[in-house]
Amino acid sequence: MNAEQQATDTAKAVRPINREPYQQAYYPPVPTGFTKHMRTNPLWQLWRFIVINWKIGRLMLSSHRSGNPA
Amino acid sequence: MARIVILGAGISGHTAARWLGKWLNKKHEVIVVEPKAKWNWIPSNIWVGVGEMTEKQVTFELAPIYKKLGVQLHQARAVSVHPEGGAASDRPYVTIEYTDPARGGENAIVTYDYLINATGPKLNFGATPGLGPDEGYSDSVCTPAHALHANENLQKCIAALKRGENQTFIIGTGHGMCTCQGAAFEYIYNVDHTLREQGVREKARLIWISNEYELGDFGMGGVHITRGGYVTNGKVFAESLMVERGMEWIVRAAVKKVEPGKLTYELLDGTEHELEFDFAMLIPPFAGVGMKAYDKAGEDITERMFAPNGFMKVDADYTPKPYEQWHKSDWPHTYQTPEWKNIFAIGIAFAPPHLISKPMKSANGTPINPTPPRTGMPSATIGKAVAASIRDMLAGAPEPTHGASMAEMGAACVASTGSNIFTGTAATMTVYPVVPDYETYPEYGRDMDLTFGEVGLAGHWMKYLLHHVFIYQAKMQPGWSLLPH
């Protein structure tokens, strides 16, 4: 085995093969590429803008019906 | 002609002043006492803190607005309340100290027929040694000046990153009993976004630190939302966003001390730890502004009027009780003080009956739990309700006519997670009600139809739009009264 091959083998030996589990970042869900893309997709977000405003409007109406002024 | 005095022109006080000015139409006198010459749209200070906005974009001069409205403005801070009159007058009055440079340090009394305490919070940096930009070693985004300073330090760190140096950023709450986690949450994501835009995110370590039991608590005991076919606690989404953006988080923490480049914190298990930083933005805990109260004879009655934290007692149930016995009826409706029927406290100035999140103490007895948030929407709603009550009481109503309990109203929060018209995002969240009501909603304490959350560009557009809408409204531009709070 030449020196170059030995160095490569040594490097492979110290590089962890498995990701360290049970750390803080191991468990929470992470969005897929598609989900992240849709977060800034203008057409989809235009629809979400309408929906969000509608939901907030309903929230304010419900608060108003509870005796709180809008 | 009656005189209504409003102490403070923040979101709540200014809302009350606008509506009273409009409804009373100079039939009665409205006076505002406010230490600062300018109004500040505080939610946008985050963007000042990352250099996305200037101080001018988040503030405007109050005097011309009040002049147009026929409201008198005294640029002063309120010092004491004399609800029964006193040596200076037989009528109830407040003592004030001018902060207006033309009358700096001068004292005066202002008599009133109705008083609205809308003094907001004292930013209690002193509660943690070394906290804060003025006399400490950390930054804040609570005022425009603080946010500008934070951005200066942020830019220095960006320059260091560009030179190839690693930098550690710590952002969160600077005391075990802070509220306003939402502001810090927005700021850490905007810092992340800024670092990515600058191409230097790789060498930056971002750490969140807060007194929440779990991420996503925000002082409201957390929230459940329906998404992706599941009812999920906000903790999951908050952690997801942290992992997505490569951040670390420390919760259940009370920052005990801040030194140059280092902070010490205690965890709920009683252990103490240190963290080194190159940049730290830590929200301070809030307290009342420190007004005193005196009776007619000049005896100190501060304890009758104010809770130990300096916030004013109103029509809440302040009976000490364990978490298991908390009830929505504990929360105030009319914000009228129980002893003095012509005094009200609104916005952050009223004393909540207790926390919303479950109280927690460390093994050493240190309280480590968020205190209740009083965000913009509830604060403005409460301000308008009290203005309406006073209007009606002036017309002969024997009692306040309007209520605005946080256990019966919702709130919408839009937390920016990066500003850009095409690539920006924000987390939009609504909760109904703000204070969980397990009697009406036994499972999750909230209406699951009206409680929701999502992250996206639409949220950023909302936040940007709201910035302009609320400043337009606050400046009383045409049609302002048609805009929602």
Features:
heterodimer; A: 70 residues; mainly alpha; 3 helices; 61% helix; B: 485 residues; alpha/beta; FAD/NAD(P)-binding domain; 5-stranded parallel beta sheet; 4-stranded mixed beta sheet; 10 helices; 24% helix; globular
How would you concisely characterize the structure shown here?
With about 70 residues, chain A is mainly α. Chain A has helices at about 5-15, 35-40, 40-65. The N and C termini of chain A lie far apart (about 80 Å).
How does the SSE layout of this entry go?
The complex is a heterodimer of chains A (70) and B (485).
Chain A: H1 3-14, H2 33-39, H3 42-65
Chain B: E1 3-7, H1 11-24, E2 29-33, E3 38-40, H2 45-48, H3 55-58, E4 59-61, H4 63-69, E5 72-74, E6 76-82, E7 93-98, E8 107-111, E9 114-117, E10 122-123, H5 144-162, E11 167-173, H6 181-197, E12 204-209, E13 224-227, E14 230-233, H7 234-244, E15 248-250, E16 253-259, E17 262-267, E18 272-276, E19 279-283, E20 286-287, E21 292-293, H8 302-305, E22 343-345, H9 376-394, E23 411-416, E24 426-431, E25 452-456, H10 457-474
Parallel strand pairs in B: 1-2, 1-9, 2-5, 6-21, 9-22, 11-12, 11-19, 12-15
Antiparallel strand pairs in B: 3-4, 6-7, 7-8, 10-20, 13-14, 16-17, 17-18, 23-24, 24-25
